[in-house]
Amino acid sequence: MKLNKQKFLLSLAKVIAVGILVAAGKSVIDGGGTGKEKTITILHTNDTHSQIFPIAADKGRWAGFGGYAKRAYLIDGIRAEGRGVLLFDSGDFSQGTPYFNFFKGNIEVDAMGLMGYDAVTLGNHEFDNGVEELARRVDRAEFPVLSANYDFSGSAMEGKTLPFKLFDVKGVKVGAFGLTINTRGMVDAANARGAVYKDPVACAQWAADTLRALGADVVVALTHLGEHSTPFYIGDDSLAAKTSGIDLILGGHSHTDGISTVRNKEGGEVTIVQQASQGRLLGRVDITVKKKKKE
Predict the structure, then answer these.
(1) What is the pLDDT of residues 54-74, one digit of tens each?
(2) Is residue 295 part of a domain?
(3) Is residue 38 in some structural domain?
(4) How many domains does the chain have?
(5) Measured on CA atoms in the order 96, 99, 101, 106, is the torsion positive or negative?
(6) DSSP H helical segments within the chain, as ranges?
(7) Which of 14, 154, 225, 266 measures 20 to 30 Å from 139, CA to CA?
(8) In a domain, 133, yes or no
C-alpha cells in the first residue's frame, strides 16, 4: 500500500472553514482478482487536547487554526461527496485547555458524537482524571472506544471498550482496532489503577488476524504509541515491522505530521500517518480496494 501526500489550505468562502489544513493521500489495496474497484475515504484526527476553539491569535503560524466548528464543516463537506466515509480519532482528545478541567471532558465526547465519529482509541491523557471518571465519559460517548491492549477487568472500565470493530462501508469491509501506550511514567499510578497494559505487538497481530478471518478488506490500527520506538516504548514503526495484516496505522502521541511506509514482517507495505496536534490538521486517506470477483 502506497500513499502520496499533499497538503493544501482550504480557502473557502465561508469563514468557518478558514484556518484548518487537510492532509490528503491516496492508496490502492489489491484484494486479488480483477473485480470492481471501490473507493472509500478515511478521515482521522489525533491529539486534539481539548482545543475546542481555534488556536489563539498570539500563537504564531498556527494562530486561528483548529476548532471543532471548522472540523465539523470540513467533515460534512467531505461526506457530501457521496463516497463512503469513516471518521476515527487516535487518542488524547482530552486535556490541554481549561474546558477539560471545568467540564470534565463532556464537551469533547459530546462534540465528537455530533460530528459522527465512528470509533476512537484512548490516549494516555484520557486517564488523567482516573479510570472511574474515564468510564463515565465513555458511557456518555456515542461512539465505540477501541482498546485491544488494555485489560480493564475488575475496574469501572470493564466491558466499556471493544478490542476491534468491523465496518461495512459501501461494500468495503474495514476492520479497525485500537492500541494505547503504556501509561507508566505518564499517568499517576492511582489514576490508571485497574488498567492493565498488554504487549501491543501481540495484541495487534491477534486483532489483525481476527479481522482478516472476519472478512476485512482493509485493516486499520488506531494507535496512541508515537511514531518512533524508544528504549522504553514501542512506536508505530516497530509495530508495523513486527506484525502482518495491517494496511494503515493512524497514529498519535508524538504530535508529528507526516506519512511514512514500513515493510511488515512478510514484506508488505504498511502506511503510517499522523496529524500533528490541537486539531490543526484533518487527515484524509482515500483508499481504492480491488475486490475479488465472486465465483
Answers:
(1) 888 777 778 888 899 999 999
(2) no
(3) yes
(4) 1
(5) negative
(6) 68-79, 98-103, 106-115, 131-140, 200-213, 236-241
(7) 225
(8) yes
Q: How many CB atoms lie within 10 A of CB 123?
A: 28
Residue 81 lies in a domain: yes
Number of helical (H) and strand (E) elements in the chain, helices listed first: 6, 15
> 3-class DSSP state for residue 154?
coil
CATH number (domain holding residue 84): 3.60.21.10
Is residue 83 within 8 A of residue 41, CB to CB? The reply is yes
Q: How many CB atoms lie within 10 A of CB 41?
A: 18
Confidence of residue 92 (pLDDT cuts 50, 70, 90): very high
Residues 6 or more apart whose Cβ sits within 8 Å of residue 233: 181, 182, 225, 226
pLDDT tens figures, 266-284:
999 999 999 988 888 899 9
Cell numbers that stand for 186 in this block: 505518564
- pTM here is 0.89
In this structure, are residues 123 and 180 in contact, taking their beta carbons and an 8 Å threshold?
Answer: yes
Spatial distance between the Cα atoms of 146 and 162, rounded to a whole number of angstroms = 5
